[in-house]
Amino acid sequence: MITLISWSTGIILTSWIVPRKNLWEISISQSSLLLTLSCFFFNNNTSSLSNNISINLATDSINSPLIILSCWLIPVTIAASISNLNNITHNDNNIFISLNILIIIILTITFSTTNLIIFFLGFESTLIPTLILITRWGMQKERIEAGYYFVFYTLISSLPLFISFIILYNNTNNLNIILNFFQNNWNINNILASFCIIAFLVKIPIFGFHLWLPKAHVEAPVAGSMILAAILLKMGGYGLIRITNFLWLNFNLNINNILIIFCCWGGVLTSLICLTQTDLKSLIAYSSVSHMSFMVAAISTNTNWAISSSIIIMIAHGLVSSALFFAANIFYERSSSRTLIISRGLKNIFSILPLWWLIFSCANLGLPPFPNSIGEILAFSSIINWNLISFIPISLGITLTSIFSLSLYIYLNSGNRFNWNNINTNLNERESLTFSLHILPLITLIINPNITMNWPS
């Protein structure tokens, strides 16, 4: 842990020292070495927080894949942002790289800590660098409004969580996740248990708590969209798993019945919203809400299959949605518009990009053998085992997800080329490398999906 944090700090310092002509190459190479270190240092052979690094830091099969995914995010986001930031000043480039590395440092501490207060501080600390990314390097003037939505939704939902942690400390005299898991928390009332999960439901987010997400995604730069989709949304799922573990009695008796029904039908409604979207990034953002709603429904069943499926879905969705946002940014750079009807016919000027769209669209709809399908099969099995009637919204959700995922591919890769799309260009080496960095982890999960499983020892 200290090695990863020290190496990340070194990347920040190096970015301010090296000359501009070598900035991107050195930053990407150093961050790639950080990813390699994270794969060696963290193993997920245990299903409990028993691999203690220190008194307040530990790793297990839940947080280890998320830490590795966080470290994977650095070289990918930096490589994806070169074309957008190559024409700005050297100091702005340094600030951009430093903010990305700072987010990874915060995420590493947040995922590995066993203290709820440290977790809360890390959970909220990602707000500041992400807000700066959205408001400073956003695409349109509406990025300021998107920043307001992002801040107020996060802060308002986090206040009940902080109050709940204080009350929890007064009841149990500790804020350690491991100790709270083994203690009997039956005296915690239902209101407190509900307050504990509100912040995570907003961060994920599920339907009804999602209004900030499409605005933030649409106005954020490509790096901001990839960070939000790949990592920051997964903080909510990780926190929900941890909280429900030691509040399982209140959760199972009073909360999960309502939450499962709400999330299942919320996922269906969000899929319907996706069918009406004309903005490319907005459609991808709403599809994330749909997938995350079904994931929360699975977590609410509180079974081993549900926890395993949620981890697989978080990792696979982080890879696929990040790749979709990067592909959307390529279309935006060529056509200067995110409107689907304007982007039709661009397949005629690309040779390989339609293939990438097909691969990640199929992964987004959960087509075997992609890991998304493995996670969704386990998640839907847990939900149906909870109540057979939930088969109805799940069937609708699967159907609508397939429709809008394939419609997205057809809209962008069919039709005649318009006059404003007569651009003779193709994918360059950097863009092909970024797509490859997305597909390689998916291939690894296809070959060995057990590396993200949370089976009990």
UniProtKB/TrEMBL annotation:
Cross-referenced InterPro entries: NADH4_N, NADH_Q_OxRdtase_chainM/4, NADH_UbQ_OxRdtase, ND/Mrp_TM
Protein name (database record): NADH-ubiquinone oxidoreductase chain 4
Membrane topology recorded in Swiss-Prot or TrEMBL: Multi-pass membrane protein
Classification via Pfam families: Oxidored_q5_N (PF01059), Proton_antipo_M (PF00361)
Lineage top rank: taxon: Eukaryota
Coiled coil (UniProt feature): none
Cellular location(s): Mitochondrion membrane
GO cellular component, one term: mitochondrial membrane
One GO BP: ATP synthesis coupled electron transport
Transmembrane regions: 63-82, 146-171, 191-213, 220-241, 253-276, 305-328, 349-368, 388-412, 433-451
EC number: 7.1.1.2
Domain NADH:quinone oxidoreductase/Mrp antiporter transmembrane: 114-399
Function of the protein: Core subunit of the mitochondrial membrane respiratory chain NADH dehydrogenase (Complex I) which catalyzes electron transfer from NADH through the respiratory chain, using ubiquinone as an electron acceptor. Essential for the catalytic activity and assembly of complex I.
Top EC class of this enzyme: translocase
Catalysed reactions listed for this entry: a ubiquinone + NADH + 5 H(+)(in) = a ubiquinol + NAD(+) + 4 H(+)(out)
Residues covered by the NADH:ubiquinone oxidoreductase chain 4 N-terminal domain: 1-110
Gene Ontology MF terms: NADH dehydrogenase (ubiquinone) activity; NADH dehydrogenase activity; ubiquinone binding
